[in-house]
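Chapter review: from sequence to fold.
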Amino acid sequence: MKTLSIMIPTYNEEDNVMEVYSRCVQVMEKELSHLAFEIVFIDNCSEDKTRELIRALCEKDKRVKAIFNARNFGYSRSHYYGLTQMTGDAVMLVHADMQNPPELIPEFVKRWEAGSKVVIGIKTNSSEKKILWLARSIYYKLIKAMSEVEQIEHFTDFELLDKDFIKVLREIDDSVPYLRGIVSEYGFKMERVYYKQNKREHGKSWANFFGLYDFAMQGITSYSKALLRAATFVGAGISGVSFIVAIATFIKKLINWSSFAVGAAATSIGVFFLGGVQLLFIGIMGEYVLSVNSKVVKKPLVVEEERLNFADGSEHADRTEAAE
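The token string follows.
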């Protein structure tokens, strides 16, 4: 009998833990009874009662396992690390907020059993605010246009990954992995499940402007050289135009030495414009340097504090062990 690992990342999800567990169990027992399953929570150092509830579930149901991170290592690193720790024949990633409904798990499994190594969920619509949907749509189209690897629009890590693809994830040595890009680049035979994303019913989302910006820049700097090349071309273009304007101004000054005044306003505008462009592209270069620095330092993805209900009885597992 094959085993499906259901991975549920959590961070301050005390209002959702019990419900997401119940809905996942109900789906597996009623619709996918031919599969064995385990539910693995990976908690990113929650500050509420999330861990207490997960401990209670682990004591009640041995099919429930837990990995507790020593601190909050961020959305991307914790998700990626959790996937590399799964032991089932396939891994289904379900978010604790249930915006991506667990009731769709059978649709993913159906396509996996038909031979797909990677099955991803694509949002066709969302109950979130329209301004957020618009912003995400623009971002996806932007990164898709800039990226050297085809990026998938409205793919939000709602996915089923075969154990063969999990092996690929373990082999990738990246301290700041961008999972959506990795799935796009190395995703074997891929199937899509289209769905409408629900509204979060309980609790508060972890996402804020700075977190979303960091995640967006991670995707851009990992899979696109376009901004750096744009900086080069725009810089060269502005320099060329400025040189021509400077020559023309100099000639006019020579011809009308006493009557032609360059003007402080024109000079100030030129200085501030060029300064603003320079700062913009220095910032872009800084994002790339920061991304390179994060990858070169080779920090561990996650440091574990505790494990519950794992068969080997281990309490800790480092990245090297996960990759073997």
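Two observations follow directly from the output. Residues 264-297 form the longest helix (34 residues). Residues 313-324 have pLDDT under 50 and may be disordered.
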